[in-house]
Amino acid sequence: MQQDKIFADHVSVAYEKDDESLLAVDDVTLSIQEGEFVVIVGPSGCGKTTFMNTLAGLVKPIRGKVFMDGKQITGPSAERGVVFQQFALFPWKTVFENVEFGLKYRGIPKDERREIVRKYIRMVKLEGFENSFPHELSGGMKQRVAIARVYANMPQILLMDEPFGALDAQTRTIMQEDLSEMFMMEKRTVVFITHSVDEAIYLGDRVIIMTARPGKFKKIINVTADCLIPNRRNLGYDDVVNLKAFRDLKRELWGLIKAEIVEKRIL
Amino acid sequence: MTEDAPKTLLYENGAEGKICLTNILGNLMVETRKIRSRKRVILSVLSVIVVLGGWFVLTTVLRWVPPAFLPPPQNILTDFFRLLNKSYVGHTLIGHTLVSLQIVLGGFFLAVLIGIPLGIMMGWFKRIEAIVDPMFQLLRPIPPLAWIPLSLLWFGIGISSKIFVIWLSAFVPCVINAYTGIRLTEPLLVKAALGLGVKRQWDLLREVAIPSALPVILGGVRIGLGSAWMTLVAAELLASDAGLGYMMQMARRALEPSIIILGMLIIGILGAIMARGLQMLEKRICPWVMDKER
Question: How many domains does chain B have?
């Protein structure tokens, strides 16, 4: 039997707020296979980010365990690279130095580092901006740097926490297409968090719908395995969005999420 | 189809018009900025000329103000050249200036050298904060000048007592800003670094916390330099046997106001030069911050 890349075993996570312990994630079990693009979508404040921080090793669960390749995750590691909504670039480092950052800690020699950095800056289409500082870039470009930084570091898993949430709609669409393309070029295991149903269906091999807090998995949809939207990865965003299969799926997913929002009154 | 075509054309024209307009506006703004900066220089030069001219007219032409009260500007200039190589109360002007500079820079660099690492350690390690902070909070409200009597008792009237007091005055802002800067480190950046493979506390401090605190730390250095100068003159006025403050104090006793004003001017000019130098250093060290502020 093939081993799960990630296995979350009955995981519950709580966080402290105003001296109160709130349950953010409630008894969640999930296994992710190598090379899979998993999207978690849910109403805001449902514990998506908390769950992702748990996978990253930045937060410890109060119950249950998370494993990567059969080994328990106990802390953050370069094996699980994170892309944050707020980019989290080092403002005192240039684009090149930001992308190079993790490679230094992998002990990769300088010449090799330079080549890797060049490659990924090219992949995110930022050639010519190597020596710019983050504040000189637009939001979309900043997120491209962050993606290149994580990609270059060769993590086993890419964790993306609403990476396009801070971008305008036009930039967002282009970034989604580019990410899909990158994913095809260099297959990685990705866990992607969003509250956009469109984004979830467009990108995810598997889409997981979370309930409102405390977050549980409400439904898991195998977009790729069940071939719900044929040929999706070869089409542009606009073409996919206008497919009937996409619209049907979107209606279904949105119905589920809306029900959560209305039911638990998190309007 | 036929209906669509003119619409697009219209739209395109409109867009072009807009682009032209923004170009014009952009150029206009660049132009006005140029004019503004030229105007500023002219105004600055004018203001200096007006103040000096008014001073000259009041003291020399109209003679409304007696020289014993406010000497004319040219007297200060002649005193400047006279004292360049002639000893006054023990030293030439250059000698007094060097003594003062030595004290200021000595105290200031010691403060930077000890204060910044201490502040960083306090900001980063909870245990060090717990040990140092109570003492620091207790000593902090005492004005540096209040230390002068004790420092005279400990170190005598020479240079070290003043270096001590100046060290104290610059030390406090260095510590506070380094501490605050480290404390303000963006947690998201720490998370990002951890996710990129940083494992040791020391690397986190070196690669994330210190660079992110650097602008705040340099702000503390600037404040420290300012208070070093302020404290210097007070310390020298109170107890000294050389230095600009001492020279001014002696000139007051000898009723030579032009030498007092000369001392003031030198302190002002040196302070301004050093502050400007620090600013340039900041721009070099933190290019990402200065760009944002401009």
Answer: 2
Structural domain harbouring B188: 73-293
Mutate to test the interface with B, among A86, A94, A105, A133 (most CBs of B within 10 A): A105
* Pair (B132, B222) in one structural domain: yes
CB contact burial A52-74 (16+ within 10 A = b; e otherwise): bbbbbbbbebeebebbbeeeebe
Query: What's the CA gap between B148 and B157, in Å, rounded?
Result: 10
CB A149 within 8 A of CB A101: yes
What is the extent of the structural domain holding A125? 89-154
Residues B87 and B53 in one domain: no
CB distance from B195 to chain A under 8 Å?
yes
Q: How many pairs of residues across A and B have Cβ atoms under 8 Å apart?
A: 68
**How many other C-beta atoms can be found within 10 angstroms of the C-beta atom of residue B70?**
16
What are B25-57's pLDDT values in tens digits? 556 666 666 667 888 899 999 999 999 999 999
Identify whether residues A201 and A73 lie together within a single domain.
Answer: yes
pLDDT per residue over B158-187, tens digit each? 888 999 999 999 999 999 999 999 999 999
Burial class of B85 by CB neighbour count within 10 A (0 to 12, 13 to 18, 19+):
exposed
Find chain B residues with C-beta within 8 A of A58's C-beta: 191, 194-195
**Closest alpha carbon to A185 in A241, A137, A147:** A147
Residues B147 and B40 grouped into a single domain:
no
User: Alpha-carbon distance B234 to B34, whole Å?
Assistant: 42
- If one counts the domains in chain A, the total is 2
What is the per-residue pLDDT across B247-283, written as a single tens digit (0 to 9) for each?
999 999 999 999 999 999 999 999 999 999 998 998 8
Q: How far is A190 from chain B (nearest CA, A)?
A: 15
Interface of B with A in 201-240 (CB under 8 A): 203, 207-208, 211-212, 214
